[in-house]
Amino acid sequence: MDVVIGEDGLARPAWADGRGTHGDLMREYYDTEWGMPVRDERGLFERLSLEAFQSGLSWATILAKRENFRAAFDGFDPDRVAAYGARDVERLMADAGIVRNRAKVEATIRNAGATISLRDGGGLADLVWSFRPERTPMPRAVAEVPTTSDESKALARELKRRGFAFVGPTTAFALMEAVGIVDAHLLDSHRRGSSGLWRADGTPVEDGPRE
Question: Quick one: which residues bind Zn(2+) (predicted)?
């Protein structure tokens, strides 16, 4: 078992037990946000963008900078970000409050435009959620939590086909975990099943909460 029992008596994975740098922030994120359904365009664009920035870094680093990211990218409003030009790229590259990676900055701007282009066909949320699997993982230990899936590979391919960048299968799976498309909580965690979208046997609740 890879759960840790906290001082509050609740079981969490070690990465969310409140210890270390940004420990309290990580525990709060785990307890209130990670794995909860996100179905709005801006919310999904933000999380897709942050998962892309996280590539090669720790999630704690990105989470600690999230408010800076939101300020720098106009609250992740796709319409505003898609209109960014060269001066905005240089502004972002000079912003020490975010991750200054030119390829990731430019990918975020590109992805904003791709998000807008999806609106006529149902939008980003409909596309991403259409890859919800028939079963969710059932991990008892962190080592049993997958980093990709057939669905994340297919989602990554489709996003790339639609013009998105920095959306490989691992990033796509991390997005699916973060927004509730799969439940990657360990079985003994106090947060397992908190999204209301999955039964105890790993099958979907078809009439689960939609927001």
Answer: 185
- Are 143 and 190 in contact by the 8 Å Cβ rule? The answer is no
Q: Residue 206 contacts by C-beta under 8 Å, 6 or more apart in sequence?
A: none
Is 59 catalytic? The answer is yes
Of the candidates 15, 29, 106, 158, the residue annotated as catalytic is: 29
| Residue 51 appears among annotated catalytic residues | yes
Residue 80 lies in a domain: yes
* Structure token pair of residue 15: 């990465």
30 is catalytic: no
69 falls within a domain: yes
Residue 65 lies in a domain: yes
- Write the pLDDT tens digit of every residue in 107-146: 999 999 999 999 998 999 999 999 999 999 999 999 999 9
Helices (H), 55-166: 59-64, 66-72, 78-82, 86-93, 102-117, 124-129, 150-161
Return the closest-CA partner of residue 68 out of 41, 99, 38, 109: 99
Q: Which domain holds residue 105?
A: 41-121
Asked if residue 185 belongs to a known ligand binding site, the reply is yes
pLDDT of residue 210: 42
Residue carrying structure tokens 């639609």: 162
Q: Pseudo-torsion of CA 164, 170, 176, 179, nearest 10°? A: -80
Judge whether 32 lies within some domain. Answer: no
CATH number of the domain that 111 lies in? 1.10.340.30
